[in-house]
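If you are new to this repository, start here. Below is one unmodified record pulled from the training split, so you can see the exact layout before writing a loader.
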Amino acid sequence: MGSFFQIGSGSPIDARAGFPIGVYIFGVILVAALVGGIWFLTKHILDYKKSDAYIQKQLERITTQKDVKKFSETHRLTQDMSILLWDICKTMKLPNINYLIKQPESIAASFKEYYYKIKEQNISPEDLNLFFELNFTLEKISAATKSLLSTKQFPLESIVFYLTHESEQFPFYVKANDSHFLALEIPKFMYDNPRLKPPLLERLRFITKAQNGMTYHFTSRAMRYQTNPDGKIHLIIKHSEDLVNQAHRNSKREFLDTECLFSPAHLVHTLENEKKNKHNSEEDFVVRPKEYEGRITNISSGGCCIKTTLPIKEKQYLSLRVPSLELHEHIIGIIRKTRKLVDNTYNLHIQFLKISLDSKNRINTIAFKYEI
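And here is the target side for that same chain:
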């Protein structure tokens, strides 16, 4: 009986032999050409977006709301910060913020000008605090994209703070900076005091502040001392490339040396406070009337460092007033660290627990060096 359907004739080898191999090779070549073309085009686009011409083109274009959205998503800004950033970019007609972020001086100038505009509008303390938070957030983002890489970048007459083993800070001034070393002018009283004189051949700790306001820590080995004809003492140190920026800080900090008044404070232990387990009401702390004098060496809206002759233990509460900075309210803080210095004084590292928005804004105004 014959078959109704004939599936095929001949062997599989015969079928392969009949396949047009030229078509197969052409297909492979075509796919390779497409892949190669896509790769070449993609590389060309990426290279162009990194070119000076493309960057300059972006910096000549005013920031759009879409640019701000991209920037906010990339750097995880809060919704409030994103809204404020768009208002700043729109008001100040800033170039594309995604590229302007690499020019911290331009951003700082624009933010300063915007600050004076909003001050004239009697902005609320909450909105002003948000402005300072956004300002410092952009400083940190900028620092991450454009960091100091070496002490060779230090300009002449810039200040470098020397940290003793007790973390006491002394300002040195950059007087020479060549390819081999850095010359720092140090106070003569330190050179004459064996306890304060930085030891040679040891790695010393330093802090400096870049032009964009960010603080950097670094270490360097002391090589020698030299006395200039004018009697100034220079400490010669090796260049360092281990600069670490302190972008993890939550508040902008300012170094200074000004008088302050502080008093002991204690926490009111009530059942309500224990249930809340937080210190955010006016009744939480009681301030004792007696005030002691000290000096603030640095301050931010989140805390400060006080130099005093009193050996106050850690984890103690205190109230702080700084009349010279027009900070008249009793700011409540806790001593996180106490360090004894070589001159038998103490550095109290304080974290603020209760501080008004007005005082925060006042401190930020000082830290950003804005006129009141």
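Two things worth knowing about this chain: The radius of gyration is 31 Å. The longest strand covers residues 254-267.
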